[in-house]
Write the C-alpha cells for this entry.
Amino acid sequence: MEGVDHLADERKKAEFNVEAMKIVWAGSQHNLEVSNRISKLVADDPAFRKDDRTMLPRKELFKNTLRKAAYAWKRINELRLSEEEASKLRFYVDETAYTDLHWGMFIPAIKGQGTDEQQRKWLPLAYKMQIIGCYAQTELGHGSNVQGLETTATFDPHTDEFVIHSPTLTSSKWWPGGLGKVSTHAVTYARLIIDGKDHGVHGFIVQLRSLEDHRPLPGITVGDIGMKFGNGAYNTMDNGVLRFDHVRIPRNQMLMKVSQVTREGKYKQSDVPRQLVYGTMVYVRQRIVADASCYLSRAVCIATRYSAVRRQFGSQNGGPETQVIDYKTQQSRLFPLLASAYAFRFVGEWLEWLYTDVMQRLQANDFSTLPEAHACTAGLKSLTTSVTADGIEECRKLCGGHGYLCTSGLPELFAVYVPACTYEGDNIVLLLQVARFLMKTVSQIGTGKQPVGTIAYMGRIEHLMQCRCNVQRGFAELSADLVEAAVAHCQLIVVSKFIEKLQQDIPGEGVKQQLEALCGIYYLSLLHKHQGDFLATSYLTPKQSALANDQLRALYSKVRPNAIALVDAFNYSDHFLSSILGRYDGNVYPKLYEAAWKDPLNESVVPDGYHEYVRPLLKQQLHTARL
Ligand SMILES: CCCCCCC/C=C/C(=O)SCCNC(=O)CCNC(=O)[C@H](O)C(C)(C)COP(=O)(O)OP(=O)(O)OC[C@H]1O[C@@H](n2cnc3c(N)ncnc32)[C@H](O)[C@@H]1OP(=O)(O)O
Ligand SMILES: Cc1cc2nc3c(=O)[nH]c(=O)nc-3n(C[C@H](O)[C@H](O)[C@H](O)COP(=O)(O)OP(=O)(O)OC[C@H]3O[C@@H](n4cnc5c(N)ncnc54)[C@H](O)[C@@H]3O)c2cc1C
C-alpha cells in the first residue's frame, strides 16, 4: 500500500528521542543539517539515479560514472558548495569513482609529502580539477611489501631530470584507482637511484596523459585491469595498469618534504622520520575507519527494517505470524552488528582527533606519537573493515532469500566494500604491524619505560613487567597468535572509546540509556565470542561467564523495541540505501513484485535465444514422444 508506513507501530515503540540520536550519529547539529540538505539534493535529482547500476554492462556503467562525476562537479560549482558540502555530496552520490582517489589520495599525498613550493604549484590545479590524479604505488609483483617495489627513478645530472622506468613485467603498476582511463597525473612510487645507489622508495609526480587529447604521453603504456567482483560495485572504478619506458620528469617533481635531491645529485634527508613517506596511507586508513560505520550501518538498517517486516511461523488462531526480529537467534546476530555500527562511529571520531593531534605535533617536530598513530590506524582499519565486510554478508543472510536479490542492495554493498579488507594494507599485514608495536612495547616495559596512550594499560599488567622479550625472536612462529592479540588490543580501543563517549554529556530523552545498552551489547557479545580465552586464562569464572550471557540476552530485549528507531537515527534516505528491503515505509512485497517486472529479462515474454536453443529441444522431445 502506497503512502502507508508499515513500520509505524515499530516507530511508536521507541523509548528515546530519535532526533537527538540523529545528532549524536552525525556528530553535531551542524553536520546533521548539512547531511539533510545535501542528501535531499542528491536524492531529488534524477541525474544521480543508481537503481540500474547492477544491470549495466561495464562500458555503459563506466561512462555513466564519468557523467555523474562531471555533473556532481558542475553542481558543486554552481551551488558554490564548501569543501565539507562537496565531500558530503560525493558521499551521497554513492558511486565509487576516480574522484575518490583524486581527492582522497592524490591531493593528500601532495599535501603531506610535497614542499610548500610544490604544493603551491600543484594543489591549485588539482583543486580546480584542471589535472586529475591517482596514487600509483602497488605493482603486479608487490603490494604489501612497499620496500620491494621495482619501478626506478634514476637521477640524470646532465638534464636535471629523473628517468622513470619499469624494468620488469612485475614492476608494472597494477591496481591504482582512476589510473586506467581517467587520470592525467599520478603520484608514483619508485626507487630513487642516484649514481648507482638505491635510496629506497620515494614519491614522484608524473604526467601520464596529454591535457589536450588525453592520449598517453611518450613512454607510457596505460589501461584498465579488467572486471572485478560483483555487478556494479567497484566496476565503476578504472583500476589501472601502467608501464614506464624511460619517462623523463623534471627533478622538482620528486615529492621533497621528507628527503631532497639537489641539482648536484646529492641526497639529503630532512629531520623527519623516513616513515612519513607512508603518511598518505596513515591518513587514508583513518578515513577508512570513519567510513566503516557508514557501510555497516547501511546494511544493519536494511536488515533491521526487513526483520521487522518479515514474518515466519508462530501464527496463533489464524493471527499474524512472528516478526523474525523477535527471534532471539535473529537478535543475537543482528544487534551486535547494530552495536558495532555505533561503536565504529565513535572510534572513528576519536581516530580523526588522534590523527589531527599527530599532524599538529609533526608541525612542531614532535614525532613521539607517530608509532602509536601508525598502530592505531593500521589496527583499527583492519578490525573495522573485517567486521564490516563480514557484517554486510551476515545482514544479507539475515534477510533470507530476498537478501540475495540485487534489489535488496546488499550484494552490491558487499561487493563494493569487501576490497577494503585488502586495499590500503592487507588486514593481516596491518595486524602484524600492530603486533610488532605491542611486542616492542612489552620489551620496553622491562626496561622501565612507561607506556602511554592506547597502550597505557600494558604498564599495569603485572606479568608483562617481568617480560624480557626480543621483538623478533619467535615473532614469525607465533604470528598467528600475535595477530589475535593485535585484534584484542584494537577491540579494547573500540570499547574504551565507546565508554569514553558515554562519559560525555549526551542530551535527548533516553538517548544515553540506549547507547549504554548498545555499548553493553558490544562488549558482552565480544566476551561471549571469546569466552573460551577468558576462561582458559582465568580472567573469568564459568559463573561470571554465564552471568554475562544472561546480561547480554537482557540487553537484546531492552534494545528490541527501539531497534527501528535506532536505525532511523542513521538518517539514510531511500535513495541512499537503494534497497527495497530497507525502505523507510517497510512496503516491501509490492515493491519487490513491481521491481521484478522491470528486469530487462522480462521485457519480452519469450526470451531471446528461445528459438535457437529451447525450441529445438522441445521439438526433439515431441519427436521422441511420438516414437
Ligand atoms: C578515502 C579515499 C578513498 C580510499 C580508496 C582506497 C583505494 C586504495 C588505495 C591503496 O590501496 S594505496 C596502496 C596501499 N598500500 C599499502 O597499504 C601497503 C601496505 N604496506 C605497508 O604499509 C608497509 O610496507 C608495511 C607493511 C607497513 C611494512 O613496511 P616496511 O617494510 O617499510 O616497514 P617495516 O620494516 O615493517 O617497518 C619500518 C618501521 O616503520 C614503521 N611504519 C611502517 N609503516 C608506517 C606508517 N605508515 N607510518 C608510520 N610508521 C610506519 C614500522 O612500524 C616500523 O617501525 P619500527 O618498528 O622500526 O619502529
Ligand atoms: C579495489 C582495490 C583498489 C586498490 N587501489 C589501489 C590504489 O589506488 N593505489 C595503489 O597503489 N594500490 C591499490 N590497491 C592495491 C592494494 O593496496 C594492495 O592490493 C594491498 O596493499 C595488498 O597487497 P597485495 O595485493 O600485494 O597482497 P599480498 O601481500 O600479495 O597478499 C596476499 C596474501 O599474503 C598474505 N601476506 C602478505 N605478506 C605477508 C606477511 N608478511 N606475513 C603474513 N602474511 C602475508 C596476505 O595476508 C594475503 O593473505 C588496490 C587494491 C584493490 C583490491
